[in-house]
User: Fold this.
Amino acid sequence: MRAAVVREFNENLSIETVPDPECPESGVVLEVAACGVCRSDYHGWTGHHRMIKNGSVLGHEYCGTVVEAGRNAKHKVGDRLIAPFILGCGSCPSCHTGVSNTCAHQVVPGFGPPGAYAQYVAAPFDHNLVHLPESMSVALAAGLGCRVTTAWHALTDRANVKAGEWVAVHGTGGVGLAAMLLAKMLGAQVVVVDVVQEKLDYAKQLGADEAVNALETPAAAAIRDITGGGAQVSIEALGIEATTNASLECLAILGRHVHVGMPAESDIMPVNMRAIYSKQLSFFGTRGMPSWKYPSLLSMIERGEVDLNPMVAREVSLSGASAELAAMNGPTPPGTAVITDFLN
Ligand SMILES: [Zn+2]
Ligand SMILES: [Zn+2]
Assistant:
């Protein structure tokens, strides 16, 4: 099969013919229909993810059609499925208590096993995979493997956002834009922060109540002004020190910070402990979403409660993925790129 392979960090992915994946006994092989290009891939491509090395195949947010099913697979050949990026084992205490996104035996294709920047991908533990709704485009469905579900879990499980609350979103890339759209659906008021005016304009056009350009004005102070004392919830959607501290400092007393961005530069970063201490803030980490939460989220999208289609800005070919990764080194345009052509 054709796959885009990491050979040298920060260099174009190498388009190669590699062996087709072997089918897991408790899992399936998908013919990939779409795979999102995510900022986590960028961290791997630049050499800042310990699982990515020479020979790795990226791609962790994907959907496709089953072409082979293992002996103990739950799904069958021909099923069109969406995969969450975290595939929980299904038989450990975490999986049994509804938090499969914390499974100690989890498999994440694209960070270790080969991912979906390829014509085919093996997905073990296929009970995690869900049917792709008829009405949904494959490009949008791919984002439901990572950015949309991560944002949904951050808002509904970690922060427990209530209607009427102010939610600040720091970073309006894929996960940030999804967080804004979903927070609006929940009845929250949303202020978005970015350094790219075009992305802020796009977010406002899609329903954000307020927007702050952090290049022009200190974000935390601006948000405290806009919200009359601070946001109740703040989503950090980039993973760097500046946005982490802006997120803590923009919160109201007893506010909830949810850390969504993968900390890429360093494991340790200075954070404003005074803000956490004196405002008695909550600091939540989050990663992925347990797969049992898919049906309710998919049903809301299908009913038209929220339109996530504007998140997909560009459909690209496999050989076009390198340019998308390279572009993340600087300010990026609004929306996300999804690979939907695996033959070019
Ligand atoms: Zn992702
Ligand atoms: Zn498990």
